């Protein structure tokens, strides 16, 4: 994405030199620097009073003005925007966390994290079988309009990101370091490609180097952003199993790809299956769990053949945002009866959720005249 969408209220663009924007940006960065590793301490306070400047009054350990200058410069040089909690672009799925990051830093399209996402994670030392499986699921799901979320690591993560890009899909990388760094460094070009076709996201202050303790924090965001987590390959002690654990605690569906019982890289996934994870043999297994019977159009495609019920959903939401239960009552249906048509609209990008989790219509892209 070469430019930032202007529709996201509350998103702070570092290139906006207005005094108010710069003051807010620096205040949010100071909050991130002071409280980012322990967000549960400030989440509720920021929900009650979203002005970060009041939170900082009397706080100790504030970053210096020079440190904030460097941070703002890093955001400008990488074309990274700041998405504070409470802004319209902050993903509703993250805002429900008790340890929601006070500030997200995103390079790419700020709308991507709020779209329906499926996480694909797995072993760094992946086998050919695992890499092929990751590519298969990522390409099929991305072709169905799902955003593929992963952690930019070598192995399964990178295979999933690349497969989504190769089919013209959308992918989101979540990092365990600052937005001006890429880990591993060999994936710098991949990160650039992801930012152009989706987004690269972090909760860490500019300049932050990756540390072992940061990866579990990163993993909780990968799962929380997603409506389902697919583990392709994992050893018995694996970060991917941590992601699956976060997903289970967050109420997110967990799927796993079965593998040979003798393969070390399949012991973790096979254990997930034994413990009740969904079996993933085809992308349709995951789409079915999301309420989608088959492939739906990718976002950006011009859709002209919605069902009568889907058109009623769109007309209702155009008048006013609704919760799922409110929408069902308005249309005289049950939420279960609306699930299939509504999920197709969400996957296509025509319906989204605001920061309160209410459904709203997203205007279709304009078709240029020839």
N-to-C span: 23 Å
CATH class category label of the largest domain: Alpha Beta
Question: What would the average pLDDT be, to the nearest integer?
Answer: 86
Largest sheet data? 9 strands, mixed
The CATH architecture of the largest domain is: 3-Layer(aba) Sandwich
Discrete helix count: 15
Q: What do you see in this structure?
A:
The protein is α/β, with parallel strands linked by helices and 370 residues long. It folds into 3 domains: 19-90 and 98-103, no CATH class; 115-176 and 211-289, Rossmann fold, CATH 3.40.50; 308-361, Orthogonal Bundle (Arc Repressor Mutant, subunit A). The protein is 43% helix and 12% strand. The chain is built from 15 helices and 11 strands. The strands form 2 sheets. The chain has a 9-stranded mixed beta sheet with strand order 1-2-6-5-4-3-7-8-9, sandwiched between helices. The protein has a two-stranded antiparallel sheet with strand order 10-11. α1 packs across α4 and α7 (156-166) crosses α8 (188-197). The longest helix is centred in the N-terminal third of the chain and has 17 residues, at 19-35. The chain is globular, with a radius of gyration of 20 Å. The two termini are 23 Å apart. Mean pLDDT is 86; it is low at 1-7, 293-304 and 365-370.
SSE layout:
Layout: H1 19-35, H2 43-48, H3 52-56, H4 65-78, E1 81-84, H5 92-95, E2 103-108, E3 117-121, H6 128-143, E4 147-150, H7 156-166, E5 171-174, H8 188-197, E6 199-202, H9 214-224, E7 228-231, H10 239-250, E8 253-256, H11 264-274, E9 278-279, H12 283-289, H13 308-319, H14 324-331, H15 335-348, E10 351-353, E11 359-361
Parallel strand pairs: 3-4, 3-7, 4-5, 5-6, 7-8, 8-9
Antiparallel strand pairs: 1-2, 2-6, 10-11
Helix pairs in contact: 1-4, 6-7, 7-8, 9-10
């Amino acid at each position: 994405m070469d430019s930032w969408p202007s529709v996201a209220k509350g998103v702070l663009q570092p290139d906006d030199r207005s005094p108010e924007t710069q003051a807010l940006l620096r205040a949010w960065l100071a909050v991130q620097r002071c409280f980012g590793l322990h967000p549960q301490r400030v989440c509720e306070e920021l929900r009650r009073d979203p002005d970060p400047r009041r939170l900082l009054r009397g706080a100790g350990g504030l970053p210096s003005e020079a440190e904030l200058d460097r941070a703002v410069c890093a955001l400008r040089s990488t074309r990274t925007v700041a998405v504070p909690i409470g802004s319209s672009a902050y993903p509703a799925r993250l805002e429900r966390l008790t340890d929601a990051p006070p500030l997200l830093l995103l390079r790419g399209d700020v709308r991507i994290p709020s779209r329906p996402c499926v996480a694909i994670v797995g072993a760094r030392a992946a086998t050919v079988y695992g890499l092929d499986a990751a590519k298969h699921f990522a390409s099929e799901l991305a072709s169905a309009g799902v955003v593929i979320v992963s952690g930019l690591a070598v192995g399964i993560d990178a295979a999933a990101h690349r497969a989504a890009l190769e089919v013209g899909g959308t992918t989101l990388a979540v990092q365990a370091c600052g937005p001006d760094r890429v880990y591993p460094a060999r994936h710098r070009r991949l990160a650039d490609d992801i930012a152009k076709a989706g987004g690269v996201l972090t909760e860490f202050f500019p300049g932050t180097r990756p540390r072992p303790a940061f990866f579990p924090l990163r993993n909780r965001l990968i799962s929380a952003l997603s409506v389902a987590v697919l583990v392709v390959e994992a050893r018995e002690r694996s970060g991917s199993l941590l992601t699956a654990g976060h997903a289970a605690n967050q109420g997110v569906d967990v799927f796993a790809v079965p593998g040979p019982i003798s393969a070390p890289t399949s012991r973790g996934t096979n254990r997930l299956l034994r413990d009740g994870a969904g079996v993933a043999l085809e992308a349709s297994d995951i789409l079915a769990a999301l309420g989608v019977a088959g492939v739906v159009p990718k976002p950006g495609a011009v859709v002209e053949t919605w069902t009568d019920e889907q058109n009623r959903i769109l007309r209702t939401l155009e008048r006013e945002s609704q919760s799922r239960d409110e929408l069902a009552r308005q249309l005289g249906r049950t939420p279960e009866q609306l699930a299939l048509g509504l999920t197709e609209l969400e996957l296509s990008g025509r319906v989204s959720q605001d920061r309160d989790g209410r459904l709203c219509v997203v205007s279709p892209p304009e078709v240029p005249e020839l």
